[in-house]
Amino acid sequence: MSAIYKALRPSKEEKDSKVGKSTRANRQRVLLISSRGITYRHRHLISDLQALLPHARKEPKLDTKKTLYELNEIAELYNCNNIMYFECRKHEDLYMWLSKPPNGPTVKFHVMNLHTLDELNFTGNCLKGSRPILSFDKSFDMEPHWQLTKELFIHQFGVPPQARKSKPFIDHVMTFSIVDGKVWVRNYQINEPAKVQEDVGDVDELTLVEIGPRFVLTPIVILEGSFGGPKIYENKEYVSPNVVRAQAKFSPIYHDKRKEQEKPLETIDMRGYTTLANTGRAFRKTRKLRDGGGLEEFLFRGQVMQVYRDMMREVYLIKDSQVRNEVRRYVKDEYRSTSHVSDLETRRSLLIGGIRNWRSVANNLGLSRTGGGVAIRDGMDRDKNV
């Protein structure tokens, strides 16, 4: 038995050759998590990043925003050595935290100008689970904090060769460019012509077609530890969006718009217009006076509606259904012919003629309430009866 074991056991030279050929495995796993209060656009961005990162594990939202060091325990629980945490403030400002637990470092970014895949609707496409080529600007090698940021981007967005859900294909490029102290992130498809696919054409004929999503990252601070520790870098040029909104409120343009919005309306004397009280309130709420609409025309339009509403009430007193339908159709036609006239005087004359015709119709039908109490109130002569 021992002879068989010795024969099957590899020799020392074979062991040394295997050790020499073995390479260090690239094991990167990203914890993708967000805070409470994110908007639908932020949620769609996180879903797009999850589709692009097959080595990421998405977790439910984090309830707290103060004790962020709890993310280290969650990452250890799910065997993740990278954390991508999205924090939303005031339901509009989105921040991205990139961390290497448990020892750090941590970089905090302000996410601006984000556009999801559904918003862009580009023609580019890539295989889900494929590995990207990470392209960095030369500016990342100029300063130490950009070098550190570049290394974090490689660990977060670089898909390992043997990730669990990855596919052995490389068909898209993620570019990171520095412009005005901000990182511009884009995602492109590698478009191969038919000649290149058949190994006939030149590789230089490859083109890039944007896929999305796209967003801009403004670095704020770099911490030595994972969601804690001393600051090793702080962006002095960064201005909080709260400060920007506060300064906008003190600008003269903002106050001019505020004064225009809060311009006092003309007062409406509703005495004698009890049936049109709700109509007057609606007119004030719509603020049509400020846009040049006439109050007299508005009130007269309400009076026309009130007159024909009284006519319809009397129509429903007719017992014969056939006659009732014919009279109701007649009243509707009269109302349409009156309401579609733009001239106020013409509309008033048509209304007076319509009321006279209605009185004759009501008398012929023998109705008890024959519209004799209908009064035309035009704001100047409220006691004028037809």
From TrEMBL:
Sequence ranges assigned to domain Brix in this UniProt record: 28-228
Taxonomic superkingdom: Eukaryota
SUPFAM superfamilies from the UniProt entry: Class II aaRS ABD-related
Single GO BP term: ribosomal large subunit assembly
Keyword Coiled coil: no
GO CC terms: nucleolus
UniProtKB keywords: Nucleus, Ribosome biogenesis
Subcellular location: Nucleus, Nucleolus
Keyword set includes Nucleus: yes
Descriptive protein name: Ribosome biogenesis protein BRX1
GO molecular function, one term: rRNA binding
PROSITE patterns assigned to the protein according to its UniProt record, in alphabetical order: BRIX
Family: Belongs to the BRX1 family.
Pfam family, one: Complex1_LYR
SMART domains the record matches: Brix (SM00879)
Coiled coil: none
